[in-house]
Amino acid sequence: MITTTITRNIGSTSMPQRPTVNRYQSHLRHYYFPVVIALGGCILFASFTYLTSRANNIVQENAIENASQYLSAISAFRALYTSEVVQPSIKSGMKVGHDYKQNSQMIPLPATFSMMLGEQIGRSQSGAKTYLYSPYPFPWRQQDSNDVLSKPFSMNAWQYLNANPTLAYYDFVEIDGGLVIQYAVADRLKETCVSCHNSHPESPKKDWRTGDVRGVLQVTLPLGKISTNVNNNLHQTFILLLGFSAFLIICGYIAHRIMTKDGKSLLLANTEAEAQNLRLTDALSAAEQANKAKSLFLANISHEIRTPLNGMLGMLGLINLNELSSKNNRFVSVATSSAKALLRIVNDVLDFSKLAEGKFEIVDESFNLRNLLEHVKSTFYGIVLKKNIQFSLVFEQLNHEWFLGDRGRIEQILINLIGNAIKFTEQGSVLVLIKLKKREYKGLYNIEFNIIDSGIGIDEKNISRLFESFSQEDASTSKRFGGTGLGLSISQKLAQLMHGQISVTSQLGTGSTFILSLDLYEDATKAELNTHQLTQPNISEITNTTETSVFTFSRTINVLLAEDSAVNQELMRFIFEDKNLNLEIANNGQIALEHIKKGTRKFDIILMDCQMPQMDGYQAASAIRDLNSAYAKSIPIIALTAHAIEGEREKCINAGMTDFATKPIDQDKLLHLMDHWIGNVSLTSQTTTESDTQAFESTAPEASELKVWNRTRITESLGLNEKKMQVLTSNALLEINDLINDLQRLKIENNQRTIDEVVHTIKGISANISAERLAYIANEIGQCKENSERKEDLLLSLNKEFQVFSNEINKTVH
């Protein structure tokens, strides 16, 4: 029973479909040809109707054009006759009149002569008839004008043209069995004719003015030749169309026979093709899903790898600061180089993935070319010294420095090309030659970056493969020098996205020349930001301390620090070291609030940064005060802020904070402030300290006097030894570098609010490590309006100043 049921179900669901398909195909084969014939006949009839209508339109359009040109020629001849014959004749004493045949000293009037010309043309060529008539005729033309005006067309033409002198009046009529066009235009008085008409003794009107409608100039043109030519063309076209249709019908009939004969085979083939299409569609969908999964994986894994790599590099940098044996120094150097190489590979893979998906965006911004190149050059300072090769940067007539382009991508390409040149040059030199050439368009320049090295060179047969993905000159190159083979491919694609290109010439064993060519517009509105032109800062305090004091608390103090900056966290650890202080760190205001809510650990005081992600210091302080707890309402909360502006203290107090301390942090002042607000404790000093604290507002130095890095202040005011200072500045460099990279991304997204928050963080870190000029510029940015030109300039200066500060730290400390 089960088998029977299954058999019935299979038969009932699949078999009835085939007769339906066959019946449909049978009807299609049976009616296909008659339907095609009927449809073809309808198309032919419609085509003939359309062509006939179009032929009539063509005849009329040509007739109007010919008539217009005819009358224009008559008028032009009349004007020429007047200016070149009549006027000189009058000056020479000859007369002008209508009865010139009876007077040998008289020539015809312009109107009379032009009508004679029209009559002669009509008799000899076109069969045209020309008329010139007016309700105000001279006596000798009275009868002719009245005869013409007695006809309906002529009277209508006069009335219409008198009201519309700039238009034409025409009609198509049959005369003596032939189609003609009657075409008329206004005969308007020209300036040279007015005086003659007004002064003539027999003129019917004496008050003519220039532009008045004197009469009507009319032509009657037979259309027989035009109509015959168009109709002949129509018949020929229709015959061709008919022949082509017959050819199509024959082809259709043959196709119908073939279809009928091979219908079954075609159906089977079509069914198989549809099934294949479905399989291909499924495969394509699966491939797209796999590609999306690949891209997502690359993005995620790149991020996950880069995060610990940055941590590794940071810690390795700190290890380098300690005194190590030569063996351990080698270990650390190898680990650092390996981590940096891995980070470059991850970045290349991520860029390659974005380029492959077409998701790479080029963002134009204003940048200083000289600063960019100097920064790129400084990147290779260490490796060039290590390899003992010469590295030069030469500008060839760099008269313009500010351009519009994607600074980050240009820098990425140059670092890749220069890095390759240095990598493949064991001895000799690497030269970066910059050539600037003005284009035809205003403000457009071609910039050539020539990277010339004396390295190993490239075999000519391998040059064509250089820009292929995952390609190097040969396998031995990869083994000897390393690399993924993605750098040049990515660089070429980036150059092409910026409408540029990279070219290469090389000779094996001699060296190579890579040329990056870009067309960039000059940003003429930009100029170098001079620090001495900036207004006076108002961001922090300067402390002149004659002797470092060491303070300690009489009992253990539990401190909760709400601070998102790792550098500032490290700074507070150093300050609180050996001070009898236990420090608990919360990375944002929300975490600090949770600590107070739980109450598992009682804190004596809270130090609250004002600008933090998720929940800032103002919100956190307010939320803590709102908790239903005497402890939460009474615990001292000290604001830590880089804002030293009017009203900031009131803002902090209104949010529920107890007191206010500005960045950069002064160790002595902060400890005394904590001592003031913590009960049952005393702060003792082991040495006598004499300090003189002066705010910028009272005796601030000029902006040009600010230091790149005030080493004296960070050692004296914060009481840090050399080792702690090295750790702090190294971490600060890493964090500020990440924040400046974030700024580049936020500028592209135009996220002004987050830009201001990042700049505020940079200001706080810079102030705490005594990077005075960097903190000053960050403060100036915070006071600018959104999207202002000054803000854009200052953001560029911030990046430039960070490079100066970084070089100063590396030169002085590391």
How many domains?
A: 4
Radius of gyration: 47 Å
What is the annotated CATH architecture of the largest domain? 2-Layer Sandwich
**Rough outline:** elongated
Give me the number of helical elements: 25
Low-confidence stretches: 1-21, 475-482, 527-549, 686-704
Distance between the termini: 91 Å
What value does the average pLDDT take? 77
Structural class: alpha/beta
Q: Helix fraction? A: 55-70%
- The count of DSSP E runs of length 2 or more, i.e. the number of strands, is 22
**Main β-sheet description:** 7 strands, mixed
Strand content: 15-25%
CATH topology of the largest domain: Beta-Lactamase
Q: What is the level 1 CATH name of the largest domain?
A: Alpha Beta
Short description:
This protein is an alpha/beta fold. The protein has 25 helices and 22 strands.
What would you say this structure looks like, in words?
By secondary structure, this protein is an alpha/beta fold. The protein is built from 25 helices and 22 strands. The strands form 6 sheets. Strands 7, 8, 9, 10, 11, 12 and 13 form a 7-stranded mixed beta sheet that branches. Strand 4 (168-175) and strand 5 (178-188) form a beta hairpin. Helix 2 (17-91) packs across helix 3.
Summarize the SSE layout with pairings.
Blueprint: H1 2-14, H2 17-91, E1 95-97, E2 106-108, H3 110-126, E3 129-133, H4 142-149, H5 152-163, E4 168-175, E5 178-188, H6 191-199, E6 213-222, H7 224-319, H8 326-357, E7 365-368, H9 369-379, H10 381-387, E8 390-396, E9 402-405, H11 407-423, E10 429-438, E11 444-453, H12 475-481, H13 487-497, E12 501-507, E13 511-522, E14 541-545, E15 551-553, E16 557-562, H14 566-576, E17 581-586, H15 589-598, E18 605-609, H16 617-625, H17 630-634, E19 637-641, H18 648-654, E20 659-662, H19 667-677, E21 683-685, E22 691-695, H20 696-699, H21 711-716, H22 722-749, H23 752-768, H24 772-782, H25 789-812
Parallel strand pairs: 1-2, 8-10, 16-17, 16-18, 18-19, 19-20
Antiparallel strand pairs: 3-6, 4-5, 5-6, 7-9, 9-13, 10-11, 11-13, 12-13, 14-22, 15-21
Helix pairs in contact: 2-3, 2-7, 7-8, 8-13, 9-11, 11-13, 14-22, 15-16, 22-23, 22-25, 23-24, 24-25
